[in-house]
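# nightly structure sweep
# worker-07 picked up a monomer target from the shared queue
# config: single-sequence mode, recycle default, output format = structure tokens
# input follows
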Amino acid sequence: MRFLVVAAAFSAPLALTISVNPAAADPQMLAVIETASAVPLRCYNGECAAELTSICLQEQRATPTPGYRYYAHNPGTIRLTGIRRDGSRVALLVEKALEFSAARGYSAVRVSVAEEVLRRHDVAAVEISVGAGLTLVPEKKSSDESHRLTEGDIELGAGPLRQTATAIVDRDTDKAHASQVLARMIDDLPRRGRASLDVRTGLWSAAGVAVAARLSKRGVHRAKSAYNGCYRQTRVGDVTLRQCLARTHDSFIQDLNEDYWEAVKTGT
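# output follows
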């Protein structure tokens, strides 16, 4: 993983004036929401991964397509911990281990590490904690320099814009907290196909309760209501419980992102 070093001091209006062809330009920078507790990475087919809640920092740029690669602008906000079989823990070097990619538009990112990294460090499991201010920058793919993110764009996104996002989204104790609970339940469900009845009925106890203790009662109640609603809606039909929870998660983030965009436009 690579990351960019930029000047620390930057002063500019919050409103962006980017005018680009969305199809040709680098997509939006993303802000990953601070996690309330460590997030376990689930291992499957040589890779360990989890979903993290995120928002778009630059409304005028294109929404990333699923799988679009990102890198951490400030990897020091991330803690990656390996857990050995005897329960002891070891810190892993973030920039050498983690990969980020868009999962569903701008509202969720997929963080992953190769299972080989676990074997190399003799750990049985791995978990990630995200601190305040984590900002992701898209890998450059545009062949047109005029459509690429400049260092100034990145400074603005990771600086004043990220600070605004922190105040509006990271510190929200309602929908942002609910989204964190939903993300953990999403990780516990099969990526493809329908979950078994036992998994569906035990999902709240298995994934929701573990993270709920560190979140607000209001956010947890919203998440529990969303789970109950999705459970009922997906007893039959083509929509899976994972898909329903993902849609609800993304709708919560859409509301918060619109609040952020409005604040950026008005300079508040």
